[in-house]
């Protein structure tokens, strides 16, 4: 491929007719290949692109589910504990320990489940939703 | 050759070191290795994007192609998850993605005594997550007013269940920044600890007489783990960007 190969016979910078023909043939071939590839990739870009993204993101999504569940439980339990130890006794003057703690642990678990189910549904249907908004990029300007 | 005897603890790599003490009116704003890594990352990102897009040729050079691919990748992610309206958040998502990606990958480059993974600290990932969720809340309130809080009200549910479901929805919302930050930080932390531990086994085995014959095993595992860690580094940056998009989608479109 390197020019040194072709021009090593002392004709550097000066292409022989057969080199010229060879170059023309190659460039025409590349042009044909590009033309053949272009409409194909253009048409399948949406479908294929998202499919590729999906398979790439599968591991990431699997990793996501675990933290979704734990996040819900941790936040629920922390909220319940805070209600019990701070909010209820000092602000409302009621002793609720361990009622809120238990209730919010259950609510948090439910929220964690909900998170998991939601991201699970998103995986199933795919994140794209054409009905989610108009296909106008800058319609935000109208709102202002 | 006792590895642990020399302070080669697997979590030593996460230590914050003060490089340049700066004190602004009693506030400790010293330059640490974490800050230095962030500055390096930002310079790399800025330099790369600036010079690779400087040519702006119609047929892109290799470097320009990388920039364009990055742009298209993030732009498609934003469009898929938020819709075209979400493109106003493209700069945010792109910055977050590139920042986290470069920091994750910089942490994978081993420089003895220096290597530091900024994203393995929850202070960083937590700050990023709080920023994202603040933008979601403020933009949601700005766009939908108080109607933004309808995202806490599930649709198509009998009224009697609201007292149960609304707290669940609120907890679910609050858990988002936590799972967002914990996921990134835990992945980077656990990955680098695992790498260090398995790499430490090599030295321990080599120093254990006849057991040295087993030393290639953890070496092979370390090589495999390194590859996995590079994958995780890229994947977690992507996941962070995708989740940012999903949360922004709530702010843009209101209730789901």
N- and C-termini, Cα separation of chain A? 58 Å
Q: Count of helical segments of chain B? A: 6
Low-confidence stretches of chain A: 1-11, 42-53, 128-144
Please outline the major beta sheet of chain A. none
Instruction: Show the largest interface.
Output: A-B, 43 and 40 residues
Order of helices and strands of chain B: EEEEHHHHHH
Characterize the biggest β-sheet of chain B: 2 strands, antiparallel
Strand tally of chain B is 4
* Low-pLDDT segments of chain B: 1-6
* Helical proportion of chain A, percent range: over 70%
How large a portion of the residues of chain B is in β-strands, by DSSP E?
under 5%
Measured by DSSP, the beta-strand proportion of chain A falls in under 5%
Order of strands, widest sheet of chain B: 1-4
Give average pLDDT of chain B, whole number.
Answer: 88
Structural class based on helices, strands and sheet pairing of chain B: mainly alpha
Number of helices of chain A: 4
Give structural notes:
The complex is a heterodimer of chains A (144) and B (256). Chain A is mostly helical. Chain A has a domain at 57-126. Chain A is built from 4 helices and no strands. In chain A, helix 2 (17-92) runs antiparallel to helix 3 (99-125). Chain A is rod-shaped. Chain A starts with a helix and ends with a helix. Chain B contains 6 helices and 4 strands. In chain B, the strands form 2 sheets. Chain B has a two-stranded antiparallel ribbon. In chain B, strands 2-3 form a two-stranded antiparallel ribbon. In chain B, helix 1 (33-52) crosses helix 2, helix 1 (33-52) crosses helix 3 (90-106) and helix 4 (122-144) packs parallel to helix 6. The relative contact order of chain B is 0.14. The A-B interface holds A 49-50, 53, 56-57, 59-61, 63-64, 67-68, 70-72, 74-76, 79, 104, 107-108, 110-112, 114-115, 118, 122, 126-129, 132-140, 143 and B 76-77, 79-88, 143, 164, 167-169, 171-172, 174-176, 178-179, 182-183, 186-187, 231, 235-236, 238-239, 242-243, 245-246, 249, 252-253.
